Amino acid sequence: MPLEIAVFPALSDNFGYLIRDEASGRVAAIDAPEEAPILAELERRGWELTDILITHHHADHTDAIAPLKQRSSVHVTGPRAEADKIEGLDTLVAGGDHVMFGETRFDVIDVPGHTLGHIAFHSAADKTLFSADALFSLGVGRMFEGDYKSMWEGLERLKALDPQTLIYCGHEYTLANAKFALSVDPDNASLKARADEAKRQIDRGEATIPVLLADELAANPFLRADEPSLAKALGLEDAPAWQVFGAVRKAKDDF
User: Fold this and answer.
1) 3-180+205-218 maps to which CATH number?
2) How far is CA 65 from the centre of its chain?
């Protein structure tokens, strides 16, 4: 049976997510950025929270774990590599593991770079990816930990998923990401179209996610580091893809 997904704003620019496995009725929050909007969405839908799936240790993804656990006996699953940085984890997972959420199977994918132990949750059956801050619409998270090579390798794991996968990321950064992307890839027609559509979505008061992986593969410069045209534009024709990725990431840092 399909997965129900609720999307709502949290904090200043986070996306909040609640997911419901229709077969079992279990309900999970993907990360825990802020208690009040999570509780409001639960009440609006008449759902009862049973689980929290955590992607990484940053406070804007974990601060609501403690108050939510105080309210009910929710089960919290999160990255094994960051267990020492996240209070309240009940089950630890890493890339290659999977989480059964009712009848929904989530494969755990290692996506280091934003943080060393950052993970993503992928349901192949539902063609759904919760990427948090590893992959944004038209961007990627700032590299706080790790190195360019390992971060690129994590993105390659995401690039290999079904192109029809819907991406649910951690923040509403699409317009700012589009502005930078156009500065390094100005002749990309897919990027221009995506930027225009994102502007229309924001003007209508809509979220710019989910977005198809296929569209990101065509428009997101961070996922196109292995494209010869982008490498050439950066003067890195003979460089490995991870170095091209690093150049794009540094350019974004300085933008």
Assistant:
1) 3.60.15.10
2) 19
